[in-house]
Write a structure and sequence with these properties.
Keywords: ATP-binding, Cell inner membrane, Cell membrane, Ion transport, Iron, Iron transport, Membrane, Nucleotide-binding, Translocase, Transport. InterPro entries: AAA+_ATPase, ABC_SmlMolc_Importer, ABC_transporter-like_ATP-bd, ABC_transporter-like_CS, ABC_transpr_FbpC, P-loop_NTPase. One of its GO terms (molecular function) is ABC-type ferric iron transporter activity. This is Iron(III) transport system ATP-binding protein. It is globular, with a radius of gyration of 19 Å. Helix 3 packs across helix 4, helix 4 packs parallel to helix 5 and helix 5 packs parallel to helix 6. It has eight helices and eleven strands. It has a domain of 134 residues: 3-Layer(aba) Sandwich (Rossmann fold), CATH 3.40.50. It is α/β, with parallel strands linked by helices. A hairpin with a 2-residue loop joins strand 1 and strand 2. Bound molecules: adenosine-5'-triphosphate. Adenosine-5'-triphosphate (ATP) binds next to strand 1, strand 2 and helix 1. Adenosine-5'-triphosphate binds next to strand 1, strand 2 and helix 1.
């Protein structure tokens, strides 16, 4: 498989009234075509900032972002978000409430011919298992169904790369786990390459081929779930993986009513 996405020593910072605040410092990663990568890390470590930079909403202070042979970003160079062939499913990327499911999915297909658009909508409804719901409105759907529509809308224009920012965070525990597996199946079926951002380790391990643990504005380890678990590159990564696993176990015990 060939490499699709390359983040080459990227640095990102925010201009604030108190000066420049560095967030990401020479972060690098490579993602192969058809793989699902996941950025995992504590709140505020810069995961969303990296995703926004890939989408084209944050300029780079150093480094470069490549999609295949195309340089998307470098200091002083920025391909516009709408020309990047990157789809997005962000946690606050709500569906349009006044449009039915079909029209939500068709949103990015306005330039397509009518027959091609109709065929694509049918394909996507079937892909996300909502064939019977095309005429329904978002408020008539469950949270999980709404996120499946959001996924279909993001995939509709056939992006080369899909970005998912905490896509399951507003769902209950059971639904988010089920949907994480469903989304993985859908992306694998269609061969899409995707980057997911989460602070939930179970979600990362359920969905990703490669996981990057973010610490101090960089990636401490970029590895398969197996590699991360069995061969952590540093004591910090080992601690993070263990601490998260322990918290997940405690949360499960709490939900089962076993915790004190
Ligand atoms: N527009 C902004 N201006 C200034 N600082 C910002 C801005 N957006 C984010 N930050 C800061 O940059 C840091 C990284 O934020 P980011 O949202 O990327 O973190 P995150 O890892 O995605 O967090 P979470 O898991 O809580 O969503 C945080 O300290 C945040 O406060």
């Amino acid at each position: 498989m060939s490499q699709l996405l390359k983040l080459d020593h990227i640095s990102l910072a925010y201009d604030t009234p108190d000066g420049v605040v560095p967030v990401v410092d020479h972060l690098s990663l490579d993602l192969e075509q058809g793989h699902i990568g996941c950025l995992l890390g504590a709140s505020g470590c810069g995961k969303t900032t990296v995703l926004r930079a890939i989408a084209g909403f944050e300029p780079l202070r150093a480094g470069a972002i490549w999609l295949g042979d195309t340089q998307l970003s470098a200091p002083g160079h920025q391909v516009e978000p709408e020309h990047r062939h990157v789809g997005m499913m962000f946690q606050d990327y709500a569906l349009f409430p006044h449009l039915n499911v079909e029209k939500n999915i068709a949103f990015g297909l306005r330039r397509w011919s009518k027959p091609r658009r109709k065929a694509r909508i049918g394909e996507l409804l079937s892909l996300v298992g909502l064939e019977a719901s095309g005429r329904r409105y978002p408020h008539e759907l469950s949270g999980g169904q709404q996120q499946r529509v959001a996924l279909a809308r993001a995939l509709a224009p056939e992006p080369e790369l899909l970005l998912l920012d905490e896509p399951f965070s507003n769902l209950d525990v059971d639904t988010r786990e089920r949907l994480a597996f469903e989304v993985r199946d859908i992306l694998k079926k269609t061969g899409h390459t995707a980057i997911l951002v989460t602070h939930n380790q179970a979600e990362a391990f359920a969905i990703a081929d490669r996981i990057g643990v973010m610490q101090d504005g960089a990636i401490a380890q970029w590895d398969s779930p197996y590699g991360l678990h069995n061969n952590p590159a540093s004591a910090c990564v080992a601690d993070f993986v263990k601490r998260e696993a322990l918290m997940a176990q405690r949360a499960q015990a709490y939900l089962r009513g076993e915790a004190s």
